[in-house]
Amino acid sequence: MATSAKVTKSESKNNHDAADEQADKEQQELIEQIDEVQNEIDKLNENASEEILKVEQKYNTLRQPFFKKRSDLIARIPNFWVTAFVNHPQVSALLNEDDEEALQFLTKVEVQEFEDIKSGYRINFYFDTNPYFTNDILTKEFHLNDTGDPSSQSTPIKWKEGKDLTKKGSSNKGKKRSHDEQESFFSWFCDHADAGADELGEVIKDDIWPNPLQYYLASEVDEETGGDGGEEELDDEGNFEDEEEPEE
User: Per the domain annotation, does 246 fall within a domain?
Assistant: First the structure.
C-alpha cells in the first residue's frame, strides 16, 4: 500500500507539472495572438496618423488667407500683440518692464508650420523701427529630425549700442517674479539648450496663435467683471468660465 501511495503522489506531481506546462504553452500562444492583433492595431493607427496629417495639411492651406486677413486687421490696432502677451499668464511671467517697452514695437506675429507639419515650425516676430535693435523680423525655428530629436535655431538679434536687454537682467524687475535677477524675454531667441522643452514656443503656437483676440480682450473682460485677471480661466472653447456662486 505504501508503494502504491508513493506512485500516486509521483503521478499527481507529474500531472500537475504537465498541466502547468500546458497552461504556460496556452498562455504563450495567447500572448503571440495578442501581439499579432496589436500589430494590426498599430498599423491602423499609423495609417490614421498619415490620413490626419493629410487633412491637417489641407486645412493649413485653407487657413492661410484668413490668417493673413486677421494679421492685416491686427496691424491696425496699436499694441495688440504686447497686450495679448501681457494678458497671457504664462508669457507675462517672462516679461519685465523693458521687454514690454520693446514689444510695443511688435506689429505682427506669424506661426508657420513646415509643409509636412511633423518636422517642425517657425515663429516670426515683425517689428517697426525701434530704439532696441535693427532687425525687422526675429525668427525662431523648431525642427524635429528623422530620429525624433528636437533642435532649434533663431535670428541673431542686432542690438543697438547699450540696448541689449539680454545683458541687463540684474536691473530688470519682473512683475510676477521675486527673483533679484530676471532674464529678458528676448533671451529666449538665443536659448537652444533644450528645444524639446521649449514651453514658450509651444504656448505661442498652440495657445496664442490660434486665437490671439481672446488674450487681447482679457483685460477688458476683467474690468467688466471686476476681476483682477488672476482667477478667471478659459474653457475649452476659449471663453471665460463663470464663477460659481457660493452656497448660502
Answer: no
Three-state DSSP state, 52: helix
Range of the domain at 57: 1-74
pLDDT for position 213: 97
Name residue 162's amino acid: G
Please name the helix (run of DSSP H) or strand (run of DSSP E) that holds residue 108, with its range, or none. Answer: strand 106-113
Q: What is the mean pLDDT of the chain?
A: 83
Is 157 found in the same domain as 112? yes
Quick one: the chain helix, strand, coil %, rounded to 5? 50, 15, 35
The confidence score (pLDDT) of residue 100 equals 97
Residue 134 falls within a domain, yes or no? yes
Instruction: Say what the pTM is.
Output: 0.70
- Which residues on adjacent β-strands are paired with residue 108? 126
Contact (Cβ atoms closer than 8 angstroms) between residue 185 and residue 126: no
What Cα–Cα distance (Å) separates residue 141 from each residue in 24, 35, 191, 198, 229?
53, 39, 12, 11, 31
The reply to whether 98 and 193 lie within a common domain is yes
Kindly state whether residue 171 falls inside one of the protein's structural domains.
Answer: yes
Tell me, yes or no, whether 6 and 93 share the same domain: no
Kindly report, residue by residue over 67-115, the tens digit of the pLDDT: 999 999 999 999 999 999 999 999 999 999 999 999 999 999 999 998 8
Alpha-carbon distance of 124 to 111, in angstroms, equals 6
User: Is the pLDDT score of 162 beyond 60?
Assistant: yes
Number of domains in the chain: 2
